[in-house]
Specification:
alpha+beta; Rossmann fold; BirA Bifunctional Protein, domain 2; about 25% strand; five-stranded mixed sheet; binds adenosine-5'-triphosphate
């Protein structure tokens, strides 16, 4: 009997993402580039919405966090000071049999290149002793490629915030406690990337560093843990799929006094989605020592100058996207057919509503196009008149669109259309003004 490979949920999500224009393999016509992915029309829109949702919650809706956008290339000394040149390493092992290379502390996540159904622990190959491998990508600044021109693609966005602490404090006139937020690309030469967009070598981070008096670190640490938990709830993630993981003392990074990860239960197990860290004054102390710039803080409320402690919230944007896609993926039997629904929250769904004429005649397309143009002024919407209406619904369900609007015979008489809710499947008749109010509530409310 031939062993037919069963399609996993991850396989299905990867293929849905390609089919619907969420995520494509990078440079695909050249055979792809390991663990690099491109966001298609729907993926780019979803990503932009996630970033806006984060940016609004972390900066615009608050008055104590400022946003910045620092450059990816930074002075190479930054990475010496931060400890990345010496310590930003993962343990690497080689397999003497297949020559595969694996991250020694994540062997259970790796696949043997010769026997992909097995991990390197199970395939029978002999592994070397672990050695430390630095994850930073090196490059050269300017036309001469030598050691004095070596620079790095940033492996985290946080350092761009620390080196701008004084600039932001002075130009924004914020007083402690206050934070600096940033969204941007980071690069890590991961030994074993994988699980689609979960672990890649180029990714985006959404990070916020909150500067506080050292006596208040525990209070703010708890505060930001609550805020970040609530953010995923507001994003519509199933809360029973999330949990906290506290770092034990042997897990803590060299800079951290306390760290908790928010973990999600992916089809490949519980994994980190975001970290909340108490970084103490480690980073500012190091930068102050390296540059001689006084990073201490003082205002009239305090008796002496002090170096602020930092509470960091560090989320992966691509990993949040994967979480949203996995969390929203659903298969339902409809009249004997298996149908796929992508249950994305209207807040981040790339397409907020689709407008259909029931049939391509009797003035329905003209009316539907007018509604489409009206909605388009405020929301990303889609017009579709191709094929049976049931198939149009199915296409939009799979693409994650929360509402489908159908113009039918009655519309021409009383200006109401049916609005179908993807998740409840309920159909309600309403006019354009009511539809706009509904979308406004669901998308922006
Ligand atoms: P891991 O243990 O998974 O390698 P980490 O503890 O090194 O992650 P952090 O340095 O705390 O991760 O980075 C903060 C966030 O950035 C992570 O929670 C994750 O969402 C995201 N992130 C880190 N590395 C990657 C990567 N290679 N690909 C995609 N996202 C990443």
């Amino acid at each position: 009997m031939s062993a037919k490979k069963t399609e996993t949920v991850m396989d299905k999500i990867v293929s849905l993402c390609k089919r619907r224009g969420y995520v494509y393999p990078s440079s695909e016509i050249y055979g792809g580039l390991g663990s690099c992915w491109d966001y298609g029309p729907l993926g780019a829109e979803l990503k932009r919405n996630v970033k806006t949702f984060w940016w609004d919650a972390m900066t615009n809706r608050r008055n104590d966090v400022e946003g910045i956008d620092a450059s990816i290339l930074m002075h190479p000394e930054v990475w010496k000071t931060s400890g990345h040149i010496d310590e930003f390493t993962d343990p690497l092992v080689d397999c003497k049999t297949c020559k595969g290379r694996f991250r020694a502390d994540k062997l259970e996540e790796c696949r043997c290149p010769k026997k992909p159904s097995k991990t390197p622990l199970e395939c029978g190959g002999e592994l070397t002793e672990a050695r430390q491998f630095n994850l930073m990508f090196k490059t050269f600044m300017g036309p001469v490629e030598d050691a004095s021109n070596t620079t790095y693609l940033r492996p985290e966005t946080a350092q761009g915030i620390y080196v701008n602490f004084l600039n932001v404090k002075n130009s924004s006139r914020q007083k402690i406690p206050f934070g600096i937020a940033q969204i941007g690309k980071a690069f890590r030469n991961e030994i074993t990337p994988g699980n689609f967009i979960f672990r890649t070598r180029e990714f985006e981070q959404m990070e916020m560093q909150f500067f506080i008096h050292p006596d208040e670190d525990e209070k703010w640490f708890e505060y930001w843990r609550e805020q970040r938990w609530a953010w995923y709830e507001a994003l519509g993630i199933k809360m029973d799929k999330l949990r906290w993981h506290e770092h034990a003392s042997d897990e803590l990074a060299h800079y951290a006094k306390a760290a908790y990860d928010i973990e999600y239960e992916y089809p490949f197990g519980w994994q980190e989605l975001e970290g909340v860290h108490n970084r103490t004054d480690f980073d500012l102390t190091r930068h102050m020592e390296a540059t001689g710039k006084d990073m201490r803080y003082f205002d009239e409320r305090f008796t002496e100058k002090f170096l602020p402690y930092i509470i960091e919230t560090s989320a992966g944007c691509d990993r949040t996207l994967l979480t949203i896609l996995v969390d929203g993926y659903d298969e339902v039997e409809v009249k004997g057919d298996k149908r796929v629904f992508l249950r994305l929250s209207p807040k981040v769904a790339p397409i907020k509503a689709a407008v259909f004429p029931l049939v391509k005649k009797d003035g329905m397309p003209e009316y539907a196009k007018k509604v489409y143009q009206e909605l388009k002024k405020r929301f990303k919407v889609f017009y579709d008149e191709a094929g049976a209406v049931g198939r149009r619904y199915a296409r939009m369900d799979e693409a994650g669109c929360p509402f489908c609007v159908t113009v039918d015979g009655q519309t021409l008489e009383d200006d109401t259309m049916t609005v179908r809710d993807r998740d409840s499947m309920e159909q309600t008749r309403m006019n354009t003004a009511e539809l706009l109010a509904l979308l406004d509530e669901k998308v922006n409310g």
